[in-house]
Amino acid sequence: MSVRLDQIDRKILSELQEDASQSLDEIARKVGSSKTPVWNRIRKLKEAGVIGAQTAVLDPEALGFEACFFVLIRTSAHEKEWQEAFLNAVKSRPEVQEAHRLAGDIDYILKVRVQNARAYDAFYQALISEVRVHNVTALLSMEQIKSTTALPL
C-alpha cells in the first residue's frame, strides 16, 4: 500500500534518512516550513507506517565485527514446518542482519556479520544443526563499496 506524499513530505523524509537526529527546527528550516507543521507531518508519516523504527547506525568494524558473509541457501524442503523452523532459526540469530527468500536457483540469502571466519563457522554449525539444508555457499565480502538505507525519494 503506498501513501500519497507531497514535496514537503519527501523533503522531510530525505532529511530524516540523512540524519534522523536533527532537531525539528533544523528539519523545518531545511524544508522551508515551521516546526509544528513538520512535527505533524512526521507524526502522520509514522502513523501511516512510512517511518518505522529510528535507530543508530553502528560501525561493525569498530565493534570487532570484521567479517561480512553473504550466505546462499538452497533447500529441498519446502514444507510449512521446515519454513517455520528455518525462519525461527534465522530470526533468533543476532548475526543475521538480513534474510531474503529469493526467486530462482537460490532459495534464501542471508547477510551475516561476525568477528571472523571461526565465528562464521560456529554460526553455520548451529544453523545446520537446527534445520536441514541442501546446499550452503558462503561468500566473504572483501570490501563494502556502498551501504545505505536511504530510498531514492
TrEMBL record:
**CDD domains documented for this protein:** HTH_ARSR
Gene3D superfamilies listed in its UniProt record: 3.30.70.920, Winged helix-like DNA-binding domain superfamily/Winged helix DNA-binding domain (1.10.10.10)
Q: Where is the HTH asnC-type domain?
A: 5-66
What keywords are assigned to this protein? DNA-binding, Transcription, Transcription regulation
Keyword presence, Transcription: yes
Check the record and name the Pfam families matching this protein.
AsnC_trans_reg (PF01037), HTH_24 (PF13412)
> Which is one GO molecular function term here?
sequence-specific DNA binding
Please name the SMART domains in this protein's record: HTH_ASNC (SM00344)
Q: Name one GO cellular component term.
A: cytosol
**InterPro entries registered for this protein in UniProt:** ArsR-like_HTH, AsnC-type_HTH_dom, Dimeric_a/b-barrel, Tscrpt_reg_AsnC-like, Tscrpt_reg_AsnC/Lrp_C, Tscrpt_reg_HTH_AsnC-type_CS, WH-like_DNA-bd_sf, WH_DNA-bd_sf
Q: Could you provide one GO biological process annotation from this protein's UniProt record?
A: regulation of DNA-templated transcription
Q: Which PANTHER family match?
A: DNA-BINDING TRANSCRIPTIONAL ACTIVATOR DECR, LEUCINE-RESPONSIVE REGULATORY PROTEIN
Q: What is this protein called?
A: Lrp/AsnC family transcriptional regulator
Q: Which organism is it from?
A: Donghicola tyrosinivorans
